[in-house]
Design goal:
Blueprint: H1 18-48, H2 53-78, H3 82-109, H4 114-119, H5 123-146, H6 149-161
Helix pairs in contact: 1-2, 1-5, 2-3, 3-5
Transmembrane segments: 24-44, 56-75, 82-101, 134-155
Keywords: Membrane, Transmembrane, Transmembrane helix
Length: 171
């Protein structure tokens, strides 16, 4: 209705503290790094013919869904939604990190040395490794920041001022 002023979003009454804002920025860095890694992986698969169009399509669909949900959850987390903080911490902080480090750790456990792994690295692999390192560091740091005392107080305050019907909407 014209001229109608909506009340401010309850969580926006108090701005997000620095740890939450920084965690949001780090989640966006992680999503960007993940997208970059996907481009590198798909490019590599296309170049060496190691993946069919169907496999690549399914992988891209899954990753696009994860990146979209991660970005949405990060935005909801920044607005004080505790469920989003938990989803990010458990789903990507634990599950996502495990999926990113399992293969390198398995190779090391099988007896490969870091030196041997690095000696066979090409430019594409180096770009992927740098991005993956940035990705993992961004995720782990974001998880820590989301649970600092200032962040905890923000999520508690936001929960108290929010209606139960407010899942995570922009107004």
């Amino acid at each position: 209705m014209p001229g109608t002023v909506l009340p401010p979003h309850p969580a926006s009454a108090v701005p997000a503290p620095a740890p939450v804002r920084r965690a949001f920025a780090l989640w966006m860095i992680a999503v960007t790094a993940g997208a970059f890694e996907t481009v590198l992986a798909v490019g590599g698969m296309a170049a060496d013919g190691s993946g069919s169009a169907g496999e690549i399509g399914v992988g891209l669909t899954i990753r696009l869904t994860v990146f979209t949900l991660a970005g949405w959850c990060a935005g909801c987390m920044r607005r004080g939604h505790g469920w989003a903080r938990l989803a990010l911490a458990l789903g990507l902080g634990i599950g996502g990190t495990a999926s990113m480090v399992t293969e390198p750790l398995r190779r090391l456990a099988d007896g490969a040395s870091v030196g041997a792994l690095l000696s066979d690295i090409g430019a594409l692999d180096l770009a992927f490794a740098v991005s993956r390192t940035l990705h993992v560091l961004a995720v782990l740091t974001a998880v820590i920041l989301m649970f600092l005392p200032a962040a905890n107080a923000y999520f508690t305050s936001a929960r108290r001022s929010r209606t139960s019907a407010d899942l995570c909407t922009e107004r």
